[in-house]
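Technical appendix A lists one of the benchmark inputs used to test multi-chain prediction within the project. The record comprises two sequence entries:
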Amino acid sequence: MARTYRVTTRTRAGQITGLFALALVALGVVLPAFVPRGVILDLFFILTMLTLAQLWNLLAGYGGLVSVGQQAFVGIGAYAMFAAVILWGMNPVPAILVGGGVAVLLAVPSAFFAFRLQGAYFAIGTWVVAEITRLSIAQWKALGGGTGTSLPREATGNIMGVDLVRSLFGVREAAARDILAYWLALALAVVTIGAIYMLLRNRLGLALAAVRDNTEAARSVGVDAGRLKWVVYLLTALGTGLTGALIHLQTARISPDAAFSVTNWTAYVIFIVVIGGIGTIEGPILGVLVFFALQTLLADYGTWYLLALGLIGIAVMLFAPRGLWGLISARTGIHLFPVQRRLLGQDQLKGD
Amino acid sequence: MTPILSLADVSKSYGALKVTDGVSFEVPRGQALGIIGPNGAGKSTLFNLITGNVMADQGRISFLGQDVTRMAAMRRVKMGVGRSFQIPQPFETLTVFENLLTAASFGRDLPEAAVADECARILDQTELMRRANTRAGQLSLLERKRLELARAMATGPELLLLDEIAGGLTEGECKALVATIRAIHASGTTIIWIEHVLHALTSVVERLLVLDFGRVIGIGAPDQIMASREVREIYLGIEV
Protein backbone atom coordinates (compact mmCIF):
# COMPACT_ATOMS: atom_id res chain seq x y z
CA MET A 1 0.00 0.00 0.00
CA ALA A 2 1.38 3.41 -0.94
CA ARG A 3 1.97 5.81 1.94
CA THR A 4 -0.62 8.56 1.90
CA TYR A 5 0.47 10.27 5.10
CA ARG A 6 3.64 11.82 6.37
CA VAL A 7 4.71 13.02 9.81
CA THR A 8 6.51 16.28 10.42
CA THR A 9 7.63 18.47 13.29
CA ARG A 10 8.87 21.24 11.01
CA THR A 11 7.40 24.74 11.11
CA ARG A 12 8.49 27.92 9.42
CA ALA A 13 9.11 29.57 12.81
CA GLY A 14 11.28 26.60 13.79
CA GLN A 15 13.39 26.84 10.65
CA ILE A 16 13.87 30.60 11.11
CA THR A 17 14.80 30.00 14.77
CA GLY A 18 17.38 27.42 13.70
CA LEU A 19 19.09 29.87 11.34
CA PHE A 20 18.86 32.71 13.86
CA ALA A 21 20.31 30.49 16.61
CA LEU A 22 23.26 29.53 14.39
CA ALA A 23 23.97 33.19 13.66
CA LEU A 24 23.61 34.07 17.35
CA VAL A 25 26.04 31.34 18.44
CA ALA A 26 28.55 32.43 15.78
CA LEU A 27 28.21 36.01 17.01
CA GLY A 28 28.61 34.79 20.58
CA VAL A 29 31.89 33.07 19.73
CA VAL A 30 33.50 36.19 18.24
CA LEU A 31 31.89 38.66 20.66
CA PRO A 32 34.86 38.87 23.09
CA ALA A 33 36.81 40.67 20.33
CA PHE A 34 34.33 43.55 20.34
CA VAL A 35 32.87 44.02 23.82
CA PRO A 36 34.41 45.00 27.18
CA ARG A 37 35.10 42.50 29.94
CA GLY A 38 32.03 43.60 31.94
CA VAL A 39 29.71 42.48 29.13
CA ILE A 40 31.49 39.11 28.94
CA LEU A 41 30.93 38.64 32.68
CA ASP A 42 27.24 39.57 32.33
CA LEU A 43 26.87 37.12 29.45
CA PHE A 44 28.64 34.42 31.49
CA PHE A 45 26.08 34.96 34.25
CA ILE A 46 23.15 34.87 31.80
CA LEU A 47 24.40 31.73 30.05
CA THR A 48 25.08 29.77 33.23
CA MET A 49 21.70 30.75 34.73
CA LEU A 50 20.06 29.83 31.41
CA THR A 51 21.68 26.38 31.53
CA LEU A 52 20.57 25.81 35.12
CA ALA A 53 17.05 27.01 34.23
CA GLN A 54 16.81 24.74 31.17
CA LEU A 55 17.89 21.79 33.29
CA TRP A 56 15.43 22.54 36.09
CA ASN A 57 12.74 22.99 33.44
CA LEU A 58 13.57 19.54 32.04
CA LEU A 59 13.32 18.08 35.52
CA ALA A 60 10.17 19.86 36.73
CA GLY A 61 8.45 21.12 33.57
CA TYR A 62 8.85 17.96 31.52
CA GLY A 63 9.65 15.29 34.09
CA GLY A 64 7.21 16.51 36.77
CA LEU A 65 9.99 16.30 39.40
CA VAL A 66 9.75 19.60 41.27
CA SER A 67 13.09 19.70 43.07
CA VAL A 68 14.24 22.52 45.34
CA GLY A 69 17.56 20.81 45.94
CA GLN A 70 19.44 21.41 42.68
CA GLN A 71 22.00 23.44 44.63
CA ALA A 72 23.30 20.05 45.81
CA PHE A 73 24.59 19.34 42.28
CA VAL A 74 25.91 22.88 41.73
CA GLY A 75 27.81 22.61 45.01
CA ILE A 76 29.10 19.05 44.65
CA GLY A 77 30.11 19.71 41.02
CA ALA A 78 32.05 22.78 42.09
CA TYR A 79 33.69 21.06 45.07
CA ALA A 80 34.62 18.02 42.98
CA MET A 81 36.31 20.34 40.47
CA PHE A 82 38.21 22.09 43.29
CA ALA A 83 39.20 18.72 44.77
CA ALA A 84 40.45 17.50 41.38
CA VAL A 85 42.57 20.64 40.99
CA ILE A 86 43.83 21.08 44.57
CA LEU A 87 44.18 17.48 45.71
CA TRP A 88 44.93 15.62 42.48
CA GLY A 89 46.66 18.40 40.51
CA MET A 90 44.31 18.31 37.52
CA ASN A 91 44.00 21.22 35.13
CA PRO A 92 40.80 23.17 36.00
CA VAL A 93 39.17 22.80 32.55
CA PRO A 94 39.13 18.97 32.39
CA ALA A 95 38.37 19.03 36.14
CA ILE A 96 34.94 20.48 35.22
CA LEU A 97 34.10 17.05 33.79
CA VAL A 98 34.96 15.51 37.16
CA GLY A 99 32.39 17.93 38.66
CA GLY A 100 29.70 16.60 36.32
CA GLY A 101 30.63 12.99 37.03
CA VAL A 102 30.60 13.39 40.80
CA ALA A 103 27.21 15.15 40.59
CA VAL A 104 25.83 12.03 38.85
CA LEU A 105 27.38 9.87 41.57
CA LEU A 106 25.55 11.95 44.20
CA ALA A 107 22.33 11.81 42.16
CA VAL A 108 22.13 8.00 42.28
CA PRO A 109 21.69 7.59 46.07
CA SER A 110 19.71 10.83 46.41
CA ALA A 111 17.25 9.70 43.71
CA PHE A 112 16.97 6.33 45.41
CA PHE A 113 15.81 8.20 48.52
CA ALA A 114 13.83 11.06 46.91
CA PHE A 115 11.90 8.90 44.41
CA ARG A 116 10.13 7.28 47.34
CA LEU A 117 8.51 10.66 47.99
CA GLN A 118 5.77 12.36 45.99
CA GLY A 119 4.94 16.01 45.20
CA ALA A 120 5.77 18.42 48.01
CA TYR A 121 7.51 15.67 49.97
CA PHE A 122 9.82 15.06 47.01
CA ALA A 123 10.65 18.78 46.94
CA ILE A 124 11.43 18.81 50.67
CA GLY A 125 13.41 15.58 50.33
CA THR A 126 15.67 17.06 47.65
CA TRP A 127 16.27 20.12 49.84
CA VAL A 128 17.22 17.86 52.74
CA VAL A 129 19.70 16.00 50.49
CA ALA A 130 21.25 19.34 49.50
CA GLU A 131 21.57 20.47 53.12
CA ILE A 132 23.14 17.18 54.20
CA THR A 133 25.62 17.45 51.33
CA ARG A 134 26.46 21.08 52.28
CA LEU A 135 26.99 20.18 55.95
CA SER A 136 29.13 17.17 55.00
CA ILE A 137 31.29 19.18 52.59
CA ALA A 138 31.75 21.86 55.26
CA GLN A 139 33.63 19.22 57.30
CA TRP A 140 36.19 18.69 54.52
CA LYS A 141 39.20 20.51 55.96
CA ALA A 142 41.41 19.91 52.91
CA LEU A 143 39.03 22.16 50.94
CA GLY A 144 38.74 24.86 53.57
CA GLY A 145 35.95 23.40 55.73
CA GLY A 146 33.16 25.85 56.52
CA THR A 147 35.01 28.93 55.25
CA GLY A 148 35.95 27.48 51.87
CA THR A 149 39.05 28.01 49.75
CA SER A 150 40.41 29.46 46.52
CA LEU A 151 41.98 27.86 43.48
CA PRO A 152 45.77 28.03 43.98
CA ARG A 153 47.73 30.54 41.94
CA GLU A 154 49.64 27.80 40.08
CA ALA A 155 46.30 26.32 38.92
CA THR A 156 44.65 29.57 37.82
CA GLY A 157 47.84 30.63 36.08
CA ASN A 158 47.93 27.44 34.08
CA ILE A 159 44.36 26.97 32.86
CA MET A 160 44.17 25.02 29.60
CA GLY A 161 43.38 27.39 26.73
CA VAL A 162 44.08 30.68 28.50
CA ASP A 163 47.36 31.24 26.64
CA LEU A 164 45.53 30.77 23.33
CA VAL A 165 42.90 33.36 24.34
CA ARG A 166 45.62 35.79 25.42
CA SER A 167 47.41 35.53 22.09
CA LEU A 168 44.12 35.81 20.15
CA PHE A 169 42.79 38.92 21.88
CA GLY A 170 45.95 40.43 23.39
CA VAL A 171 44.40 40.65 26.85
CA ARG A 172 45.72 40.14 30.40
CA GLU A 173 45.49 36.74 32.05
CA ALA A 174 42.44 37.53 34.22
CA ALA A 175 40.44 38.78 31.21
CA ALA A 176 41.54 35.74 29.17
CA ARG A 177 40.24 33.46 31.95
CA ASP A 178 36.88 35.22 31.79
CA ILE A 179 36.71 34.86 28.01
CA LEU A 180 37.54 31.16 28.28
CA ALA A 181 34.89 30.66 30.98
CA TYR A 182 32.38 32.56 28.80
CA TRP A 183 33.11 30.32 25.82
CA LEU A 184 32.69 27.24 27.96
CA ALA A 185 29.39 28.65 29.30
CA LEU A 186 28.24 29.33 25.73
CA ALA A 187 29.15 25.78 24.69
CA LEU A 188 27.42 24.30 27.74
CA ALA A 189 24.23 26.33 27.13
CA VAL A 190 24.14 25.40 23.43
CA VAL A 191 24.77 21.71 24.14
CA THR A 192 22.17 21.68 26.95
CA ILE A 193 19.45 23.35 24.89
CA GLY A 194 20.34 21.22 21.85
CA ALA A 195 20.28 18.01 23.89
CA ILE A 196 16.95 18.86 25.52
CA TYR A 197 15.45 19.73 22.14
CA MET A 198 16.71 16.46 20.65
CA LEU A 199 15.37 14.54 23.65
CA LEU A 200 11.92 16.10 23.20
CA ARG A 201 11.91 15.28 19.48
CA ASN A 202 12.91 11.71 20.29
CA ARG A 203 10.22 9.25 21.45
CA LEU A 204 11.42 9.86 25.02
CA GLY A 205 9.86 13.33 24.62
CA LEU A 206 6.49 11.72 23.96
CA ALA A 207 6.98 9.47 26.98
CA LEU A 208 7.84 12.45 29.20
CA ALA A 209 4.68 14.29 28.13
CA ALA A 210 2.60 11.13 28.63
CA VAL A 211 3.94 10.56 32.15
CA ARG A 212 3.46 14.23 33.03
CA ASP A 213 -0.15 14.18 31.75
CA ASN A 214 -1.18 10.83 33.26
CA THR A 215 1.28 8.39 34.80
CA GLU A 216 -1.17 5.47 35.08
CA ALA A 217 -2.27 5.79 31.45
CA ALA A 218 1.38 6.11 30.37
CA ARG A 219 2.22 2.83 32.11
CA SER A 220 -0.80 1.19 30.49
CA VAL A 221 0.64 1.86 27.02
CA GLY A 222 4.07 0.48 27.93
CA VAL A 223 5.96 3.60 29.07
CA ASP A 224 8.47 2.83 31.84
CA ALA A 225 7.73 5.89 33.99
CA GLY A 226 10.23 4.93 36.68
CA ARG A 227 13.13 4.56 34.25
CA LEU A 228 12.22 7.86 32.62
CA LYS A 229 12.44 9.68 35.96
CA TRP A 230 15.91 8.24 36.50
CA VAL A 231 17.09 9.30 33.05
CA VAL A 232 15.85 12.87 33.53
CA TYR A 233 17.17 13.15 37.09
CA LEU A 234 20.66 11.88 36.20
CA LEU A 235 20.93 14.00 33.04
CA THR A 236 19.90 17.08 35.03
CA ALA A 237 22.42 16.28 37.76
CA LEU A 238 25.19 15.91 35.14
CA GLY A 239 24.43 19.28 33.51
CA THR A 240 23.92 21.05 36.84
CA GLY A 241 27.21 19.64 38.19
CA LEU A 242 29.11 20.79 35.09
CA THR A 243 27.56 24.26 35.37
CA GLY A 244 28.37 24.48 39.09
CA ALA A 245 31.98 23.58 38.38
CA LEU A 246 32.20 26.15 35.58
CA ILE A 247 30.67 28.92 37.69
CA HIS A 248 33.26 28.32 40.39
CA LEU A 249 36.10 28.02 37.90
CA GLN A 250 35.26 31.58 36.90
CA THR A 251 35.08 32.87 40.48
CA ALA A 252 38.13 30.74 41.49
CA ARG A 253 36.73 30.77 45.03
CA ILE A 254 34.41 28.37 46.82
CA SER A 255 32.60 28.09 50.17
CA PRO A 256 29.82 25.73 51.27
CA ASP A 257 27.31 28.56 51.76
CA ALA A 258 27.88 30.03 48.30
CA ALA A 259 28.22 26.76 46.40
CA PHE A 260 25.11 25.23 48.02
CA SER A 261 23.02 28.44 48.03
CA VAL A 262 19.33 27.60 47.67
CA THR A 263 18.64 31.23 46.72
CA ASN A 264 21.21 31.53 43.95
CA TRP A 265 20.99 28.12 42.35
CA THR A 266 17.38 27.05 42.93
CA ALA A 267 15.09 29.97 43.93
CA TYR A 268 16.36 32.27 41.14
CA VAL A 269 16.31 29.37 38.69
CA ILE A 270 12.69 28.53 39.56
CA PHE A 271 11.81 32.23 39.21
CA ILE A 272 13.37 32.29 35.72
CA VAL A 273 11.45 29.20 34.60
CA VAL A 274 8.14 30.26 36.14
CA ILE A 275 8.07 33.80 34.75
CA GLY A 276 9.40 32.64 31.35
CA GLY A 277 7.08 29.66 30.99
CA ILE A 278 7.48 26.19 32.46
CA GLY A 279 7.42 23.21 30.12
CA THR A 280 8.82 25.08 27.12
CA ILE A 281 12.38 25.62 25.89
CA GLU A 282 11.53 29.21 24.98
CA GLY A 283 10.33 30.05 28.52
CA PRO A 284 13.69 29.89 30.36
CA ILE A 285 15.36 31.88 27.54
CA LEU A 286 12.83 34.69 27.95
CA GLY A 287 12.85 34.29 31.73
CA VAL A 288 16.61 34.67 32.11
CA LEU A 289 16.54 37.91 30.10
CA VAL A 290 13.76 39.30 32.32
CA PHE A 291 15.60 38.15 35.43
CA PHE A 292 18.84 39.80 34.31
CA ALA A 293 17.02 43.04 33.48
CA LEU A 294 15.32 43.06 36.90
CA GLN A 295 18.59 42.33 38.65
CA THR A 296 20.39 45.10 36.79
CA LEU A 297 17.61 47.60 37.53
CA LEU A 298 16.84 46.64 41.13
CA ALA A 299 20.00 45.06 42.57
CA ASP A 300 20.90 48.24 44.48
CA TYR A 301 17.66 48.09 46.47
CA GLY A 302 18.74 45.11 48.63
CA THR A 303 15.79 43.41 50.32
CA TRP A 304 13.31 45.36 48.16
CA TYR A 305 14.80 43.63 45.14
CA LEU A 306 13.98 40.20 46.59
CA LEU A 307 10.47 41.38 47.55
CA ALA A 308 9.93 42.66 44.01
CA LEU A 309 11.07 39.31 42.55
CA GLY A 310 8.67 37.48 44.85
CA LEU A 311 5.74 39.74 43.95
CA ILE A 312 6.43 39.44 40.22
CA GLY A 313 6.68 35.66 40.57
CA ILE A 314 3.32 35.50 42.40
CA ALA A 315 1.65 37.82 39.87
CA VAL A 316 2.84 35.72 36.93
CA MET A 317 1.72 32.48 38.63
CA LEU A 318 -1.75 33.97 39.26
CA PHE A 319 -2.38 35.77 35.99
CA ALA A 320 -0.18 33.92 33.50
CA PRO A 321 0.41 30.42 34.87
CA ARG A 322 2.08 29.36 31.64
CA GLY A 323 4.53 32.27 31.93
CA LEU A 324 5.34 35.11 29.58
CA TRP A 325 6.16 32.76 26.72
CA GLY A 326 2.85 30.98 27.33
CA LEU A 327 1.06 34.31 26.78
CA ILE A 328 2.99 35.06 23.60
CA SER A 329 2.61 31.55 22.24
CA ALA A 330 -1.16 31.46 22.97
CA ARG A 331 -1.68 34.73 21.11
CA THR A 332 0.57 34.08 18.15
CA GLY A 333 0.63 30.29 17.93
CA ILE A 334 4.40 30.49 17.46
CA HIS A 335 6.70 27.72 18.73
CA LEU A 336 10.38 28.48 18.23
CA PHE A 337 11.35 24.92 19.17
CA PRO A 338 8.52 22.86 17.65
CA VAL A 339 8.24 19.30 18.96
CA GLN A 340 4.65 18.50 18.01
CA ARG A 341 4.38 15.62 15.51
CA ARG A 342 1.75 16.55 12.93
CA LEU A 343 0.18 14.04 10.61
CA LEU A 344 -0.13 15.43 7.13
CA GLY A 345 -1.93 13.83 4.21
CA GLN A 346 -4.73 14.29 1.74
CA ASP A 347 -7.50 12.72 3.80
CA GLN A 348 -6.47 14.48 6.99
CA LEU A 349 -6.27 17.89 5.35
CA LYS A 350 -9.89 17.58 4.23
CA GLY A 351 -10.96 17.45 7.89
CA ASP A 352 -11.31 20.26 10.43
CA MET B 1 -6.44 -25.00 21.84
CA THR B 2 -4.64 -23.00 24.57
CA PRO B 3 -6.84 -20.12 25.76
CA ILE B 4 -5.38 -16.64 25.27
CA LEU B 5 -6.21 -15.76 28.89
CA SER B 6 -6.76 -17.98 31.86
CA LEU B 7 -7.58 -17.05 35.48
CA ALA B 8 -7.42 -19.74 38.16
CA ASP B 9 -8.79 -19.04 41.66
CA VAL B 10 -7.70 -15.37 41.59
CA SER B 11 -8.44 -13.32 44.72
CA LYS B 12 -7.76 -9.78 45.83
CA SER B 13 -8.62 -8.02 49.11
CA TYR B 14 -8.36 -4.45 50.32
CA GLY B 15 -8.13 -4.87 54.08
CA ALA B 16 -11.12 -6.90 55.17
CA LEU B 17 -12.95 -6.32 51.88
CA LYS B 18 -12.57 -9.14 49.38
CA VAL B 19 -13.10 -7.48 45.97
CA THR B 20 -12.14 -10.50 43.87
CA ASP B 21 -13.03 -13.88 45.35
CA GLY B 22 -11.67 -17.05 43.76
CA VAL B 23 -12.35 -16.01 40.17
CA SER B 24 -11.66 -18.62 37.49
CA PHE B 25 -12.44 -18.46 33.77
CA GLU B 26 -10.79 -18.83 30.38
CA VAL B 27 -11.06 -16.81 27.19
CA PRO B 28 -10.39 -18.61 23.88
CA ARG B 29 -8.44 -16.69 21.25
CA GLY B 30 -10.64 -14.53 19.02
CA GLN B 31 -13.62 -14.55 21.38
CA ALA B 32 -15.45 -11.48 22.76
CA LEU B 33 -16.42 -11.87 26.43
CA GLY B 34 -18.73 -9.40 28.15
CA ILE B 35 -18.55 -8.77 31.90
CA ILE B 36 -21.58 -7.45 33.76
CA GLY B 37 -22.40 -6.96 37.41
CA PRO B 38 -23.75 -4.33 39.80
CA ASN B 39 -21.64 -1.34 40.80
CA GLY B 40 -18.95 -2.42 43.25
CA ALA B 41 -19.03 -6.03 42.04
CA GLY B 42 -15.28 -5.88 41.36
CA LYS B 43 -15.35 -5.58 37.56
CA SER B 44 -12.70 -2.86 37.23
CA THR B 45 -10.51 -4.59 39.85
CA LEU B 46 -10.70 -7.73 37.73
CA PHE B 47 -9.44 -5.68 34.75
CA ASN B 48 -6.66 -4.22 36.85
CA LEU B 49 -5.63 -7.73 37.89
CA ILE B 50 -5.50 -8.84 34.25
CA THR B 51 -3.52 -5.76 33.15
CA GLY B 52 -1.18 -5.84 36.15
CA ASN B 53 -2.21 -2.45 37.53
CA VAL B 54 -3.16 -4.42 40.66
CA MET B 55 -1.42 -7.60 41.84
CA ALA B 56 -3.41 -10.66 42.91
CA ASP B 57 -3.16 -11.90 46.52
CA GLN B 58 -3.59 -15.48 45.35
CA GLY B 59 -4.36 -17.53 42.26
CA ARG B 60 -2.74 -17.60 38.84
CA ILE B 61 -3.21 -15.50 35.70
CA SER B 62 -1.85 -16.85 32.41
CA PHE B 63 -1.65 -14.94 29.15
CA LEU B 64 -0.60 -16.66 25.92
CA GLY B 65 0.28 -19.71 28.00
CA GLN B 66 2.71 -17.77 30.23
CA ASP B 67 2.23 -17.11 33.95
CA VAL B 68 1.89 -13.31 34.26
CA THR B 69 0.52 -13.20 37.81
CA ARG B 70 3.52 -11.22 39.14
CA MET B 71 4.43 -9.48 35.89
CA ALA B 72 4.42 -5.62 35.82
CA ALA B 73 1.68 -3.88 33.82
CA MET B 74 4.19 -2.41 31.40
CA ARG B 75 5.51 -5.84 30.40
CA ARG B 76 2.00 -7.22 29.93
CA VAL B 77 1.25 -4.37 27.49
CA LYS B 78 4.29 -5.36 25.45
CA MET B 79 3.04 -8.98 25.47
CA GLY B 80 -0.26 -7.83 23.97
CA VAL B 81 -2.67 -6.76 26.72
CA GLY B 82 -4.27 -3.43 25.69
CA ARG B 83 -6.81 -1.57 27.80
CA SER B 84 -9.11 1.44 27.88
CA PHE B 85 -10.08 3.27 31.07
CA GLN B 86 -13.62 3.72 32.40
CA ILE B 87 -13.00 7.48 32.75
CA PRO B 88 -11.04 8.52 29.66
CA GLN B 89 -7.44 9.33 30.54
CA PRO B 90 -5.94 10.91 27.43
CA PHE B 91 -2.49 12.54 27.39
CA GLU B 92 -4.11 15.96 27.23
CA THR B 93 -1.18 18.08 26.09
CA LEU B 94 -0.39 15.68 23.25
CA THR B 95 -2.39 15.59 20.03
CA VAL B 96 -4.63 12.65 19.17
CA PHE B 97 -2.01 11.36 16.73
CA GLU B 98 0.76 11.73 19.34
CA ASN B 99 -1.36 9.80 21.87
CA LEU B 100 -1.43 6.90 19.40
CA LEU B 101 2.22 7.33 18.45
CA THR B 102 3.24 7.05 22.11
CA ALA B 103 1.11 3.93 22.62
CA ALA B 104 2.28 2.27 19.42
CA SER B 105 5.94 3.10 19.86
CA PHE B 106 6.19 1.98 23.51
CA GLY B 107 3.56 -0.75 23.40
CA ARG B 108 5.32 -2.46 20.49
CA ASP B 109 8.90 -1.30 21.28
CA LEU B 110 9.36 0.17 17.82
CA PRO B 111 10.64 3.56 16.61
CA GLU B 112 8.06 6.25 15.82
CA ALA B 113 8.69 6.04 12.06
CA ALA B 114 7.89 2.33 12.04
CA VAL B 115 4.45 2.77 13.61
CA ALA B 116 3.23 6.05 12.05
CA ASP B 117 1.34 4.32 9.22
CA GLU B 118 -0.34 1.92 11.63
CA CYS B 119 -1.43 4.88 13.80
CA ALA B 120 -2.94 6.56 10.74
CA ARG B 121 -4.81 3.33 9.92
CA ILE B 122 -6.22 3.15 13.47
CA LEU B 123 -7.24 6.82 13.32
CA ASP B 124 -9.17 5.97 10.16
CA GLN B 125 -10.74 2.89 11.72
CA THR B 126 -11.84 4.77 14.86
CA GLU B 127 -13.03 7.81 12.89
CA LEU B 128 -10.56 10.17 14.57
CA MET B 129 -8.56 11.12 11.48
CA ARG B 130 -10.19 14.55 11.28
CA ARG B 131 -8.94 15.29 14.80
CA ALA B 132 -5.45 13.82 14.36
CA ASN B 133 -3.62 17.08 15.08
CA THR B 134 -5.98 18.34 17.81
CA ARG B 135 -4.81 18.32 21.42
CA ALA B 136 -6.56 15.49 23.27
CA GLY B 137 -7.64 17.93 25.99
CA GLN B 138 -9.98 19.60 23.48
CA LEU B 139 -11.94 16.48 22.52
CA SER B 140 -15.65 15.81 23.17
CA LEU B 141 -16.72 12.83 25.31
CA LEU B 142 -17.36 10.59 22.29
CA GLU B 143 -14.02 11.53 20.81
CA ARG B 144 -12.29 10.82 24.15
CA LYS B 145 -13.94 7.40 24.24
CA ARG B 146 -12.82 6.79 20.67
CA LEU B 147 -9.31 7.88 21.63
CA GLU B 148 -9.31 5.40 24.54
CA LEU B 149 -10.19 2.66 22.05
CA ALA B 150 -7.70 3.89 19.45
CA ARG B 151 -4.85 4.21 21.95
CA ALA B 152 -5.46 0.72 23.28
CA MET B 153 -5.49 -0.57 19.69
CA ALA B 154 -2.24 1.25 18.95
CA THR B 155 -0.38 -0.87 21.51
CA GLY B 156 -0.99 -3.82 19.16
CA PRO B 157 -3.10 -5.90 21.54
CA GLU B 158 -3.84 -9.58 21.19
CA LEU B 159 -6.32 -9.05 24.01
CA LEU B 160 -8.28 -5.81 24.21
CA LEU B 161 -9.92 -4.83 27.52
CA LEU B 162 -12.69 -2.24 27.26
CA ASP B 163 -13.98 -0.67 30.48
CA GLU B 164 -17.47 0.86 30.10
CA ILE B 165 -16.53 2.49 26.85
CA ALA B 166 -20.16 3.10 25.82
CA GLY B 167 -21.15 4.75 29.12
CA GLY B 168 -22.43 8.34 28.87
CA LEU B 169 -22.89 8.30 25.10
CA THR B 170 -26.08 9.10 23.22
CA GLU B 171 -27.87 6.26 21.42
CA GLY B 172 -26.47 7.35 18.05
CA GLU B 173 -22.94 7.74 19.40
CA CYS B 174 -23.16 4.36 21.08
CA LYS B 175 -24.30 2.70 17.86
CA ALA B 176 -21.40 4.18 15.91
CA LEU B 177 -18.88 3.08 18.56
CA VAL B 178 -20.32 -0.44 18.67
CA ALA B 179 -19.90 -0.70 14.90
CA THR B 180 -16.22 0.17 15.31
CA ILE B 181 -15.74 -2.38 18.11
CA ARG B 182 -17.48 -5.03 16.05
CA ALA B 183 -15.11 -4.33 13.16
CA ILE B 184 -12.10 -4.63 15.47
CA HIS B 185 -13.41 -7.94 16.80
CA ALA B 186 -14.10 -9.19 13.28
CA SER B 187 -10.43 -8.61 12.44
CA GLY B 188 -9.53 -11.29 15.03
CA THR B 189 -8.81 -9.32 18.20
CA THR B 190 -9.88 -11.03 21.42
CA ILE B 191 -12.03 -8.66 23.52
CA ILE B 192 -13.14 -8.53 27.15
CA TRP B 193 -15.67 -5.78 27.63
CA ILE B 194 -17.16 -4.47 30.88
CA GLU B 195 -20.38 -2.62 30.08
CA HIS B 196 -23.66 -1.49 31.62
CA VAL B 197 -25.21 -0.69 28.23
CA LEU B 198 -26.44 -4.23 27.73
CA HIS B 199 -27.83 -3.99 24.22
CA ALA B 200 -24.46 -2.63 23.02
CA LEU B 201 -22.59 -5.40 24.82
CA THR B 202 -24.78 -8.28 23.71
CA SER B 203 -24.65 -7.13 20.10
CA VAL B 204 -20.90 -7.87 20.09
CA VAL B 205 -19.97 -10.54 22.65
CA GLU B 206 -20.33 -14.29 22.29
CA ARG B 207 -20.22 -14.98 26.03
CA LEU B 208 -21.25 -13.12 29.17
CA LEU B 209 -19.71 -13.35 32.63
CA VAL B 210 -21.63 -12.08 35.65
CA LEU B 211 -19.76 -10.83 38.70
CA ASP B 212 -21.26 -10.12 42.13
CA PHE B 213 -19.34 -9.36 45.33
CA GLY B 214 -16.15 -10.36 43.54
CA ARG B 215 -17.46 -13.84 42.61
CA VAL B 216 -18.39 -15.27 39.23
CA ILE B 217 -22.06 -16.18 39.47
CA GLY B 218 -22.56 -17.15 35.85
CA ILE B 219 -20.76 -17.49 32.54
CA GLY B 220 -22.22 -18.55 29.22
CA ALA B 221 -24.06 -17.46 26.09
CA PRO B 222 -25.74 -14.03 26.50
CA ASP B 223 -29.28 -15.39 25.98
CA GLN B 224 -28.75 -18.12 28.53
CA ILE B 225 -27.20 -15.72 31.07
CA MET B 226 -29.86 -13.05 30.68
CA ALA B 227 -32.56 -15.68 31.16
CA SER B 228 -31.02 -16.85 34.43
CA ARG B 229 -33.21 -16.15 37.47
CA GLU B 230 -30.21 -15.36 39.72
CA VAL B 231 -28.73 -12.89 37.25
CA ARG B 232 -32.04 -11.12 36.76
CA GLU B 233 -32.49 -10.76 40.49
CA ILE B 234 -28.97 -9.60 41.27
CA TYR B 235 -28.10 -7.56 38.24
CA LEU B 236 -31.37 -6.27 36.88
CA GLY B 237 -33.09 -5.98 40.25
CA ILE B 238 -36.10 -7.86 38.88
CA GLU B 239 -37.86 -10.10 41.35
CA VAL B 240 -38.64 -13.36 39.69
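Residues 59 and 65 of chain A are 5 Å apart (CA to CA). The mean pLDDT of chain A is 91. Comparable benchmark entries are summarised in Table A2.
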